[in-house]
Amino acid sequence: MDPLLAARLDRSAERVRRHVASPHRAEPLGLRLARAEAPTPTVYVRYPPCLSIVLSGRKRSVDDDSAEQEWGRDRFLITPVDLPLMARVVELGDQGDFLSVNWRLDPAVVAEVASQMPRPRHEADPGRLGAMTPALADAVDRLLGLLDAPEEAAVLAPLLSREIVLRLLQTDQAARLLHAAHHADADVVGAAVRRLDAALAHPWTAEGLAASVGASEATLRRRFRELTGLSPMSYLKRLRLGEARRRMLVAGETASRASAGVGYLSPSHFSRDYRAAYGRSPAADTAELRARMRAS
């Protein structure tokens, strides 16, 4: 790794270690900080539109219908729309921990900055992970530096937000970032996600979902693939499994009740999908998670 890039990431990691327990400082900056001291089981994570960076260790995520990808300090992920991921920490860094930071993307800021720059060249298929650059790492590090100087945030945070967007537009993920500039109300994917959220247990079909947002099935499928890597029905399955897991863990619902509550008609179908996603049966997974919560 480039020494300058490594130094920026190391300094950012130290900032996160100091402030990971202070979300009240991070949230006003659009930041969400995370730390783990051991590899984790697969978890369901719903990312809002954001930039996600690993500062220490490595994680493995599934953000399309089947393929896993492992990434660490040298890569970053942009999620231009609300995206359900299956992810787990697979490796700790040199300091014995895993650290990550998510920064919330503001579509209005992306559109503003993009309008003042030459249109970036779109590579045919750069992959869903971007290559971290020293310039991007430096801008993010200076935003994290405002955790130590909250009194300066009102002036500097808007400037740094625009710089981060500029640096992202100079990476191989520029095309994906530009999708975040679409106004949510005008985008069929955003409209479809809101429909699914509002009626998760509805017996959706791809055709019915497309009709509900005034799009053709082919258009909706293409737009979902471009923005999320998932088909609409795979996206729905992620949402249902994540909500069912939450109901079992938090509300104490049985697998049968939780699966029916999110739209599964067959308990055996739910069990198969759940095991494929989380590697364990619903009962075994819930028991393991509760044990971890009691031990923490």
Summarize the structure.
This is Transcriptional regulator, AraC family. One of its GO terms (molecular function) is DNA-binding transcription factor activity. This protein is of the alpha+beta class and 296 residues long.
Question: Which of globular, elongated, flat, extended, rod-shaped describes the shape?
Answer: globular
pLDDT averaged over residues = 88
Helical content class: 40-55%
Query: SSE string, helix = H, strand = E?
Result: HHEEEEEEEEHEHHHHHHHHHH
The total of helices stands at: 13
Radius of gyration: 20 Å
Q: Give me the count of strands.
A: 9
Question: CATH topology of the largest domain, what is it called?
Answer: Jelly Rolls
How far apart are the first and last residues' alpha carbons, in Å? 35 Å
Task: Name the CATH superfamily assignment of the largest domain.
Answer: Jelly Rolls
| Named CATH architecture of the largest domain | Sandwich
Q: Return residue spans where pLDDT drops below 50 for at least 5 consecutive residues.
A: none
- Cross-sheet strand order for the largest sheet: 1-8-3-6-9
Commentary on this structure:
With 296 residues, the chain is an alpha+beta fold. The protein folds into two domains: 3-179, Jelly Rolls, CATH 2.60.120; 186-295, Orthogonal Bundle (Arc Repressor Mutant, subunit A). The protein is 50% helix and 17% strand. It has helices spanning 3-19, 23-26, 107-115, 134-145, 153-169, 174-179, 188-198, 206-212, 217-228, 232-251, 255-261, 267-278, 282-295; strands at residues 31-36, 43-47, 50-56, 58-62, 68-71, 75-79, 83-91, 98-104, 129-131. A hairpin with a 5-residue loop joins β4 and β5 (68-71). α4 runs antiparallel to α5 (153-169) and α10 (232-251) crosses α11. The mean pLDDT is 88. InterPro entries: Homeodomain-like_sf, HTH_AraC, Tscrpt_reg_HTH_AraC_N. GO terms for molecular function: DNA-binding transcription factor activity; sequence-specific DNA binding. This is Transcriptional regulator, AraC family. Residues 190-288 form the HTH araC/xylS-type domain.
